[in-house]
Amino acid sequence: MFDIKWICENPKKFDEGLTKRNLPPQSAMLIAMDEVRRSAQTRAQKIQTERNAISKQIGIAKAKDEDTSGLIQKVSESKKEQAEAEAEQTQSANDLLDVLSTIPNTPQDDVPVGFDESDNIEVRTWGNVPKFSFEPKEHFDLGETLGMMDFETATKISGARFVLLTGALARLERALGNFMLNLQTEIHGYTEVNPPALVNDTTMYGTGQLPKFENDLFKTTDGYWMIPTAEVPLTNIVAGEVIDADTLPRRYTAMTWCFRSEAGSAGRDTRGMIRQHQFSKVEMVSVTKAEESQSELERMTGCAEEILKRLGLPFRTVVLATGDMGFGAQKTYDIEVWLPGQNAYREISSCSNCGEFQARRMKARYREKDEKLTKFVHTLNGSGLAIGRTLIAIIENNQQADGSIRIPKELWPYMGGIEVIKA
Asked: What own/partner pairs with CB < 8 Å and gap ≥ 24 does 108-113 have?
């Protein structure tokens, strides 16, 4: 979220950032709304000052045994006027906050300007796209033939966009989660967290899911929200805190279920595991000083890429254009893994630097040693990785002519001796 004071001081820069996001300029409207708030605040303060002066006159008049009824009447009227002014101030402040809460972050200067994913720019590739002596199949055909990926039963139990994994594929998903967590904690220096999967309104607001994306979320009947990603609880660990700068950066990781309504994805990826209402993911979150967040984004992206390298899965990394970035991001790298069954790269991780955008919403600050003033932390998040999509990539890239699946060597210790998954 943006500071209205900064917008008032930098209206051109703010509008230019929105224009890059393909949004109309909004500084004039926001400044006008803030003027209404400040005008009501000034009026309330002026009324208070005038009433204080009248109260002194009443004291003097009483000391002289003079009639004070007229002055008392003025005090009564001024209280009513002040209450009205303060109510207007509160309402206008809330109106301004409501609008600010729906405005996305503005991009960094080096982010490519564009309308959608077609404007994203490839920054690197890794690995060789596999070649097959047969027509490669998609993961759902392979999984169903193995008898270990069941969409029909999942639909009976829950509905569309769910899957039931059994046997070695269920174990493979578990193995991937353990492998990823071990790599993130033992090699990459993240602290493992097991956070709540149900959170409150304030937590969802802090990371930017509310109020703008309510329709993309699942909500319980008693007011809890089911997390769409562990970014939400992990980032909110520092909400409302003033952190010692010496303790930064802080790096957290968690493996959780994630829940998304997929409200805007009708007709997209209706078959298979690409787009599910429930999926598992290992998330990375970093909290840094302002001047360290960009280097942390590069580091985080490398941590996600390392998983794919160790699993031998070819991928490419792209920097997202302004029109394809998420709501809270200043800059985002997407990592896209190769899926032979689709003959295409598909997203498996997004790593984003949100700057101080989320920190302002969460009121998360840090203080340098021997300094009184605080600064907003910078927050970053990234998938490390989406487990279901990694499972898909392993199935499709390691499929054999007989429909069996070779397991990457890195996962053998987690698979109880299984090196090949067969029907």
From this structure: 108/294, 108/330, 108/331, 108/353, 110/331, 111/20, 111/319, 111/320, 111/321, 111/322, 111/325, 111/330, 111/331, 112/319, 112/321, 112/322, 113/20, 113/321, 113/322
Phi then psi for 151, rounded to 5 degrees? Answer: -85, -30
pLDDT in tens, 377-398: 999 999 999 999 999 999 999 9
Banded pLDDT at 55 (limits 50, 70, 90): confident
Give pTM, 2 decimals.
0.93
Would you say residue 72 has pLDDT above 90? Answer: no
Residue type, 385: L
Provide the CA 126 distance to its chain's centre, in angstroms.
27
Structure tokens at 22: 């393909």
Instruction: Report residue 71's pLDDT band, with 50, 70 and 90 as the boundaries.
Output: confident
Q: Which domains does the chain have, with CATH numbers?
A: 4-100 (1.10.287.40), 117-421 (3.30.930.10)
Supply φ then ψ for residue 364, to 5 degrees: -105, 120
**Which 3 state secondary structure label does DSSP give 184?**
helix
CA separation, residue 82 to residues 54, 70, 73, 164, 375 (Å) = 14, 18, 14, 63, 34
Instruction: Please identify every residue annotated as catalytic.
Output: 260, 275, 347, 350, 389
Tokens of 41: 């605040």
- The Cα–Cα gap between 280 and 50 comes to 62
